[in-house]
Amino acid sequence: MTDSTTSTTVLGWPRQGPKRELKRAIEAYWAGRSSADELHDIAAALRADAWKLLADNGIDEVPTGDFSYYDHVLDAATMVGAIPQRYRDAADNDLDVYFAMARGNDTVAPLEMTKWFDTNYHYLVPELSPGTTFTADASRQLAHLAQATAAGHPARPVLVGPLTFLLLAKPAPDAPADFDPLTLLDPLLEVYVEILDQLQEAGAQWVQLDEPALVLDQPATVLEAARHALGRLGSAMKRPQLVVASYFDALQGAFEVLADAPVDGLAIDCTVPDNVTAILEHGLAGKRLVAGVIDGRNIWAADLDDRLTTLRRLAERVDDLVVGTSCSLLHVPLDAAKETAVDDELRSWLAFAREKVLEVRTLATALTDETAAAPALESARNALASRRASARTYNDAVRARMAAVTDADAHRGAGYDERRTLQQEALGLPLLPTTTIGSFPQTDSLRKARAALRRGEIGQAAYDATMRDEIAAVIELQEQLGLDVLVHGEPERNDMVQYFAEQLDGYLATTHGWVQSYGTRCVRPPIIFGDVSRPEPMTVRWWQAAQSMTERPVKGMLTGPVTMLAWSFVRDDQPLGDTARQVALALRDEVSDLEAAGCRVIQVDEPALRETLPLRESDRPAYLEWATESFRLATSSVTDATQVHTHMCYADFGDIFAAIDDLDADVISLEATRSGMSLADELKESGYAKGVGPGVYDIHSPRVPSSEEVRELLQKAVDALPAQQVWVNPDCGLKTRRPDEVRAALANVVSAAAEVREGLSARPTTARG
Ligand SMILES: Nc1nc2c(c(=O)[nH]1)N[C@@H](CNc1ccc(C(=O)N[C@@H](CCC(=O)N[C@@H](CCC(=O)N[C@@H](CCC(=O)O)C(=O)O)C(=O)O)C(=O)O)cc1)CN2
Ligand code: MET
Ligand SMILES: [Zn+2]
């Protein structure tokens, strides 16, 4: 960096590669089709390409160590030696121990996985206990740093910070339940000190410590711990300069802690106006500011004039200004220019990771030399003007319909008890009814058929026939297994959000826009660019096909409005609640059409309801209001005898039981296995009184649970809850599992349900059917 130009960086970068090469390499290693060395080579080449792309596009300092084989929180756990003994015993080399923690193996279940703040990225929850001894292992960080340095890139290792690490961790199974991981702060800090020493020794000028947990509502004790932690790291004898990064929301009280800390820089999310105000008001006491003015989480080309104004104001207040992204670009796809199926006008509105790098560069250039940046600023201005003026974002019919929505539209006719009676009459289900969450394995042959259709190698009729065959096989399997409420298996879906987005107006699906969701699993979040409506039925023919093959009820299967938003890139030009209502009305049409076709059980999945909950408590009531209302708007057109199901997975449901109740769904299935069915007690305490299926089969692991394991979990559920309330189902859909795993696991689920049912009928007082 020279004095005359403003420096640039990004807080992190997508890991999968332009063609998801990392995914393929890791899955090949898992399948025994390639060696660890082959995996390491492919990964190293992807890192080299990524850093070169950054450097070629004017990024001065590249992030390193954020490139993970599975998850950066798991990497942090490994780095500090927080590896529970059962994983050390479960494999004979470090890489396989790592993957055992991530996804389990034949001998051990994986760590719990949950959402990274309010994103669709998932991390593995570190397990800590009073006996945890931290040990430093910076080998990964050192190797990546050495690789970048050798390639000539100024590099900045990125580490999950010690506070966020502890705040995201949970007590190990053998720890006292009230054990607070924060009590381990001091020993953990000593390990960080050691790692910082090693990184400095290896030539790192700067290290980035990610502390996004500081944007959550934290009690004074945690802010005090933050002060203490940064004090300790800041006073380390030998260390690189430290930049502490926070993102996703306003820092509020934590701002002062950071501004006062004896560290050298702060990376602050400057897409949050409160954060900019705090910097302008209080300054940063001489620290470097990595100003995160480019949104790392959405895909709209930025208003560069507006961003430049912000940067100029910041530049007056801080001495050392670096232009950057608000967070890691992990959450956006790589390259909008690759979306050649999108017309030029629409594509000009988009900025994926590569385009965001160019925006960062343009802003930095403009700060010192506006003439040099003028052409880029001008083209950004044009793109923005074209989007703002476009008729494609506006639909009169949708607007008129939104305006006509009444309160009654968002409410069922009768109350739950009355509906329950009518539904039981219509469906005649046994006690502890068994069902699945919707998807059956997405096999290679299904994906190949879809790819062939896309390439024009087969026609629509042949494709549909393949899907019908699959539906027939899935229906037959469920009948053989003895499940009570069946599903068609979702073979036709590439993804539960993208599939619907492709059929809705106002939505744009991408071809190459992959974003990591967890481990090697990726999604292509579609883009809501305009008013949303449903031109024609989306699922009815698949449901009809399935129902024509069986006497048992088949669930209609849709993705709910909140999840459609949460797993898409959303408009930034209208309130989220308005977009949610538009999607809800489109889904309402589908719900009505399913019911008209004879469907009596309709599931509308809302797995993203919890993750979309604003990080700050003060923003939550308004969100929950529009979120629950839009779900009810989507589902309330049906008669009382039609059973509405919903489903949610991997979340702490504790803080949203009231909202779950507000959805007024007749039955909800929830993930519960990895937390050992502690959910059942929480449900009991909450007083939740509608149908509920706490999951008894962890579908995120290839492990097949034994019938005994399932029975124990289910027994816990019926011990806590009235049996007539309880449904039996896996934690989530089965699309990521292999057919043989699914058959074996579901057989155990069904037999466990039968055993528990039998046990209950031996004690008739607890089981009124
Ligand atoms: N959007 C979303 N978010 C979610 C979930 C979800 O289901 N959807 N579930 C939770 C967990 N997240 C998940 C995310 C992804 C996957 C997943 O299985 N993803 C698949 C891709 C799914 C997909 O889009 N499939 C397409 C494209 C498949 C593909 O890779 N095709 C090949 C070619 C086909 C071939 O020859 O194999 C290609 O395009 O290169 C299809 O089936 O049509 C993967 O990573 O492998 C599962 C769970 C939370 N968040
Ligand atoms: C991530 S929630 C998934 C729900 C969906 N119906 C499925 O089974 O795949
Ligand atoms: Zn799920």
From TrEMBL:
Q: Which residues bind L-methionine?
A: I437, G438, S439, E490, D605
Q: Does the keyword Nucleotide-binding apply?
A: no
Q: Where is the Cobalamin-independent methionine synthase MetE N-terminal domain?
A: 8-318
Q: In which pathway does it act?
A: Amino-acid biosynthesis; L-methionine biosynthesis via de novo pathway; L-methionine from L-homocysteine (MetE route): step 1/1
Q: Which UniProt keywords apply?
A: Amino-acid biosynthesis, Metal-binding, Methionine biosynthesis, Methyltransferase, Repeat, Transferase, Zinc
Q: Where does Zn(2+) 2 bind?
A: D662
Gene3D superfamilies in the record, alphabetically?
3.20.20.210
Q: Which family does it belong to?
A: Belongs to the vitamin-B12 independent methionine synthase family.
Q: What does this protein do?
A: Catalyzes the transfer of a methyl group from 5-methyltetrahydrofolate to homocysteine resulting in methionine formation.
Q: What is this protein called?
A: 5-methyltetrahydropteroyltriglutamate--homocysteine methyltransferase
Q: Origin organism of this chain?
A: Flexivirga oryzae
Q: Which gene encodes it?
A: metE
